[in-house]
Specification:
The complex is a heterodimer of chains A (about 200) and B (about 350).
Chain A: H1 2-11, H2 19-31, H3 34-50, E1 52-53, E2 60-61, H4 67-70, E3 78-82, H5 85-93, E4 100-103, H6 121-130, E5 135-138, H7 144-156, E6 163-166, H8 182-190
Parallel strand pairs in A: 3-4, 3-5, 5-6
Antiparallel strand pairs in A: 1-2
Chain B: E1 2-9, E2 16-21, E3 26-30, H1 37-49, E4 69-76, E5 82-90, E6 93-98, E7 101-103, H2 107-110, E8 115-118, H3 124-127, H4 130-144, H5 146-168, H6 174-199, H7 203-211, E9 217-221, H8 230-239, H9 241-247, E10 258-263, E11 266-267, H10 268-271, H11 274-296, E12 301-304, H12 313-322, E13 328-333, E14 348-354, E15 357-358
Classes of the chains: A alpha/beta (about 200), B alpha/beta (about 350).
């Protein structure tokens, strides 16, 4: 049954899907009602035409430029730099941030062949020059790659007037210090801020 | 803290279908070579740390013709709770569970049961490369300090990235990597200095007691000479940048630090007799135990693999007397060997090991 094998092979290329899950999904699709499969297939086939990266900020959108970049009610003097389009959604859902975004498309990692040129820095610099930004918030992940990316941003912007901030990291809210693991406590101590 | 029992299948030649009772302070394994004494020590170590002290290739742990293995042990935690740890390998993948909960980062495993192996390969701490001595100190410090372990991991990641840049010939990001290399390198360097100072309160005395040789000391020589701050290190990296570019590798840093063991007449690795070196490697392990206890007020589990063989009875008893700072110890011996003069038999189990079976 090569049709089935092909489907399993293709499903297992999806992230976090192994061969076992792929074959379970494939058998499920065989049994499932025909209308659903057609709908799913069509949605998959057309997703890239309907949703694409915004030509200004790089977050996923159905219209170009995206509603965030064109919004008149949002604050156009603050820009938040993130690694992935998904991060925009997370920050938006917090409901606290009402500024602009910029998606880099990843974080600097020479081992994986990701340097400055592979990421969306050039466009960011252009935006900063042309716009009237007062604050840039770095919201890269607290990993080695995210830290490096943040340091690089700080370095290239050290002569600009824009205030640069980075998301706080440390103890989780609502958690007692008593229950945090040693490393989290140590990192929070190192990253302590003036109060 | 101690192991209560171990059970499993397909781990090397071990036959542990039924749980093997380990609930005594001393467990003594007697058998000819190749019967499975060290394999049991390796299995216990594997449960403590998720890797082996003999090989980095997990496949070697599987018995012939098997594709998967299971190991399970009950242990008494330092809070005297009965807990369970299990590791299985199948499809070349390792799965670790503590009390039936899957563990994803090995960091969560390694701080449950502190164990220290004494093996023949420890002689490398004295006579081996600088890297083998760094390994000893990294291990000693990581055992009690998860933050040191984490900083070291972070440093090694930055180092790899920096070396990748140098190999590619892309120097635009070097400043950024130098900043982070200096930041974490400085933390590690400071921690190493402090640890060596503190270990020098233990090692020389222990060594004197078993060898009667005085004034043998540990010394730490940092690769970033005369650097007292992150800024000093950044400056040092700048001065060495041309050389780094020329050789496409980071020539300075805590990954090039040196540790030496010095006598009054020179380095022990150069002037010591084989016996003195062997003894020093044992004393380094003993120092690891004592230092762990000093730092955590907990006693580790010892896995002593044949190394006492080379000591005469007087030294052996002395050695054992020197470190009673263990919560449980496993010793291996050859048959008909007289193992200890003074052994507390009430607190010991003796097993005869033959073809992977323990009786």
């Amino acid at each position: 049954m090569s049709a089935l094998e092909d489907l399993i092979e293709h499903l297992s290329r999806l992230p976090s899907i192994g061969p076992k899950t792929a074959s379970r999904l494939a058998y499920h699709l065989i049994k499932t009602d025909n209308g659903y499969n057609k709908l799913l297939g069509e949605e998959i086939a057309t997703i890239q035409d309907k949703i694409f990266p915004c030509s200004i900020c790089g977050s996923f959108t159905e219209t170009d430029p995206c509603p965030i970049c064109t919004s008149s009610s949002r604050d156009h003097s603050t820009i938040c730099v993130v690694e992935q389009p998904q991060d925009v959604v997370t920050l938006l859902s917090s409901g606290v941030y009402d500024g602009m975004f910029h998606v880099l498309g990843g974080a600097i990692s020479p081992i994986d062949g990701i340097g400055v040129d592979q990421l969306n820095f050039a466009k960011l610099i252009k935006r900063l020059k042309e716009g009237s930004f007062k604050e840039l918030i770095i919201a890269t992940n607290p990993t080695e790659e995210g830290d490096t990316t943040a340091l690089y941003l700080r370095q290239i912007l050290k002569d600009s007037d824009i205030q640069i901030t980075r998301l706080a990291s440390g103890l989780p809210i609502g958690g007692d210090i008593e229950y945090a693991d040693k490393i989290t406590v140590a990192r929070s101590l190192r990253g302590r801020i003036k109060f | 803290m101690r192991f209560l029992n171990i059970q499993g299948n397909s781990f090397r030649n071990l036959n542990l279908e039924e749980p093997l009772n380990l609930n005594k302070k001393q467990v003594i394994l007697i058998g000819a070579n190749g019967q499975g004494k060290t394999n049991l020590l390796e299995a216990l170590y594997f449960l403590c740390y998720g890797n082996s002290f003999r090989t980095s290739n997990l496949k070697e742990l599987l018995s012939y013709f098997s594709k998967s293995l299971n190991l399970k042990a009950t242990f008494l935690s330092d809070k005297d709770e009965k807990r369970q740890i299990s590791i299985s390998i199948s499809n070349k993948k390792r799965q670790i569970k503590i009390d039936d909960k899957i563990i994803h980062d090995r960091k969560q495993l390694i701080y449950n049961i502190p164990c220290i192996v004494f093996s023949h390969d420890d002689i490398a701490f004295i006579t081996g490369t600088p890297e083998s001595r760094r390994k000893y100190f990294n291990q000693t410090m990581s055992m009690y300090d998860p933050i040191f372990f984490d900083d070291l991991r972070y440093y090694n990641k930055i180092l790899k990235q920096r070396n990748a840049l140098l190999k590619k010939g892309d120097y635009s990001l070097l400043d950024v990597y130098d900043y982070n290399l200096a930041k974490y390198g400085f933390l590690i360097m400071t921690a190493r200095k402090k640890a060596v100072d503190e270990m020098n309160l233990l090692f020389p005395n222990l060594y004197k007691e078993v060898s009667n040789i005085d004034n043998v000391k540990l010394e730490y020589k940092s690769s970033w000479r005369n650097c007292e701050s992150e800024e000093d290190i950044i400056e040092n990296l700048k001065q060495n940048r041309e050389r780094d570019i020329k050789f496409s590798v980071s020539n300075t840093g805590i990954h090039r630090d040196k540790f030496t063991i010095n006598t009054e007449f020179g380095e022990l690795s150069a002037i010591g007799s084989t016996g003195q070196q062997r003894l020093a490697s044992l004393v380094l392990r003993a120092t690891q135990c004592k230092y762990y206890k000093l730092k955590t007020e907990k006693e580790p589990i010892l896995l002593v693999d044949d190394v006492l063989l080379e000591l005469d009875h007087e030294k052996r008893d002395k050695f054992l007397y020197l470190f009673n700072d263990y919560s449980q110890a496993f010793f291996t011996f050859l048959p008909k060997e007289k193992y200890f003069n003074k052994i507390d038999l009430d607190n010991s189990i003796v097993y005869n090991v033959e073809k992977g079976v323990f009786k």
